[in-house]
């Protein structure tokens, strides 16, 4: 059964965040809130976590996983960014955007797009997600909690706990999350491609 943690949306309890971070380091798959919607998260190198996310969401090997980072310095360790892209992304973070970029050697091979060798990265503008990332000291391997054949993510932590009780290890709930996944911007092809229009405003990229 999944553990359920109710945390304050702006000042999450440090002990609770510490407990969740410890469980992630021990291999747990957790559900946590972001500035777009709830997400599934596990430790960066967890093969079991990746497999469980693929199973829950029914994903194929072409799916772009996302490294959710605490800040820009951390993000820069995992992707290659030229100066123009650097300025564009810096101006849009933190926020509800996922950026697809060429991965560095720091990214485990199983996370990469099999042909493009790219990975998604993002910096959330959400106090609970930021507190968890700060406690972990490394990115969370993440994917939007959108179940197969459903058009919108679940918004209630208690509902997630009920439905995914036997396939995740913990649910971190700070109140309603949105229903729009992040806006996805692909910079890996040398230009700028808006792959998905979501919670983040695309005006700055058009």
Describe this structure in words.
There is one protein chain. With 206 residues, this protein is an alpha/beta fold. It has one domain: DHBP synthase (Alpha-Beta Complex). The chain has six helices and ten strands. A ten-stranded mixed beta sheet has the order 1-8-2-3-7-4-6-5-9-10, with helices on both faces. The chain starts with a strand and ends in a 10-residue tail after the last strand. GO terms for molecular function: double-stranded RNA binding.
Would you spell out the secondary-structure blueprint of this structure?
Elements: E1 3-6, H1 14-25, E2 30-32, E3 39-43, H2 47-57, E4 66-68, H3 72-75, H4 83-92, E5 97-102, E6 118-122, H5 127-136, E7 140-144, H6 157-163, E8 170-173, E9 183-186, E10 193-196
Parallel strand pairs: 1-8, 2-8, 4-6, 5-9
Antiparallel strand pairs: 2-3, 3-7, 4-7, 5-6, 9-10
Helix pairs in contact: 1-5
């Amino acid at each position: 059964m999944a553990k359920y943690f109710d945390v304050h949306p702006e000042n999450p309890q440090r002990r609770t965040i510490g407990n969740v971070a410890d469980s992630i380091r021990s291999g747990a798959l957790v559900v946590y809130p972001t500035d777009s919607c709830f997400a599934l998260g596990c430790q960066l190198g967890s093969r079991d976590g990746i497999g469980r996310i693929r199973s829950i969401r029914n994903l194929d090997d072409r799916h772009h996983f996302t490294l959710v980072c605490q800040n820009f310095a951390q993000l820069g360790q995992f992707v290659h960014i030229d100066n123009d892209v650097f300025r564009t992304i810096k101006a849009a973070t933190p926020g509800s955007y996922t950026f697809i970029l060429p991965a560095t050697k720091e990214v485990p091979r199983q996370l990469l797009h099999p042909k493009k060798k790219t990975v998604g990265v993002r910096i959330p503008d959400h106090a609970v997600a930021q507190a968890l990332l700060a406690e972990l000291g490394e990115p969370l391997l993440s994917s939007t909690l959108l179940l197969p054949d459903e058009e919108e993510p679940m918004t209630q932590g208690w509902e997630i706990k009920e439905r995914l009780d036997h396939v995740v290890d913990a649910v971190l709930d700070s109140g309603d999350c949105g229903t729009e996944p992040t806006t996805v911007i692909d910079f890996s092809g040398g230009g700028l491609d808006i792959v998905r229009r979501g919670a983040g405003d695309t005006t700055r990229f058009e």
